[in-house]
Amino acid sequence: MKALVSVLVVEPSEIICEGLRSVLSGSGNYNVLAPMHDATGLMERIPIIRPDVLIINPTLLSSTPKQQLASIVQLRPAMPIVALVYQYVERSVLELFTHAIDIRQSRSVVLSVLHNSLSDKKRESQPVEEQENYELSDRETDVLVLVAKGLSSKEIANRLNISVHTVNSHRKNITHKTGIKSVAGLAVYAMIHNLME
Amino acid sequence: MFTQRMKLADIIAANYNLILVLPRIGIALGFGEKSVKEVCAASHVPVDFMLMICNLYTFDDYRPEIDEFSKVDMSPLVPYLKASHSYYTAERLPHIGKHINHIAKGIDERYGRVLKQFYSDFRTEITEHFLLEEKYDFPKLLSLQQGIRKRGSAKTHSEKSHSMLVDKLNDLTQIVYKYLPGNVLPEETMELVFDILQLSSDIQKHALVEDRILLPYIDWLERSAE
Question: Within the 73-102 window of chain A, which residues sit less than 8 Å (CB to CB) from chain B?
Fold first, then answer.
C-alpha cells in the first residue's frame, strides 16, 4: 500500500476543515491531520507532526506574512505551502504562495492543485544532478592545442572566431579538469595525448 | 607557536619537515633532549632567528611583525637562504632529474622527450631565479645590514614568480601520475611523485621565507636607513 500524504490544514472554519478533509480523504491519497484553527503554535507543531503539505488560510498569517512563510519553509523545506482562499486576501500576500485552493473550485481542481504543489516542490528540491564531465570537450581541446602551441588568448579568439572571454573560460575549465596550470605543462599534456600534429 | 623553552625534539615531532631546515640554519642532528635554547646556544645560532624560520614553516598564518626585525639577529638569513638554494640545486633537482631520465627511457621516446624537456626547462628557470636572487637581492641585503645603501638595485622577484615555479612542479606531478603509462616503472614513478611533492612543499615554504621575511626585512632596512 502506498504511503498517504499527510496534510495539515490551518483554517478557522470547522465546516471548511471538515469539507477539505472529506474531499482529500475521499481521494485515497491523503491523510488529513487534526486541523489547527489559528496559526498560534504552528512553528512548534510542524516539526512534531511533520506534515507533507501545509494548507493555510492566508488571513491567519501575521502582519509580516513574507517572513512568517519564509521561516515555515526553513523549518520544513520540502513541504509545499498552499493558500486556502475564500475571503479577500491582499494580492501581495497571495503572490507569496505558488499554489492556492479556492473553496469554490471543484473537487478535481482542488486535488490537482494539491498534487501539483507536491510535484513542483519535489522537482525544486531535487535539482537535476549534473554529472560533471571531467573529459575535455572538443572546443576545450581546440583551445588547449592552440595554448600548447604558444598562442595568446587573443590570438586563439581570433583563430576560433570566439571572444577572448570565452577563450579564457575554456582555459579555466581546461585547468580545472586537468589540474595543469602552466602553458608548458599543457603542452606536455597535448603531446602525450597526441593532440599535436 | 614554538618557543625557546621547548624541546627541539618536540618541535620536530610537531613538524617533521623542519628536519630539513636544521642543517640550513647550522644545527646538526643528535641534539638529544636539549631545549631549543640550549641547542641554538651550542651551535652558535641566534635562537630568535631560528624560531622565526621554524614558526613560518609550521604556522600558515605566521608573519613576523616589522618590529621583530629590530630585535632579532637577522645575520643568518642570507646564509640560510643560500643553503636552501644549494640544497635544491645540488641535491633535490639532480635527484629528481635522475628519476625523470630513467622513467623517460622506459616510455615512448616522444613522450620521454617532452617530459625531459619540461623538467629541464623548469630546472633552468628555477636555477636562474635563485641566481638572480643571489646576484642582486642577497648582496643588497648584506650591504644594508652593514649600513651601506646601494642605489638602484631593484627587487628581482615577486610572489608571482614563486607561485609560477610552484605551479610547474605541481603540473609535473599531475603529468607523472596521471598521464604517463602506469605500467612503466610504477615503484619509481611513485617515488618520483613523492620526491616532487616534498620539493614542492619545501619550495613553497622557502618562498614564504622570502616573501614574508626577506622582502619586508629589506624594506624595513631601507626605510630605517632613510
Answer: none
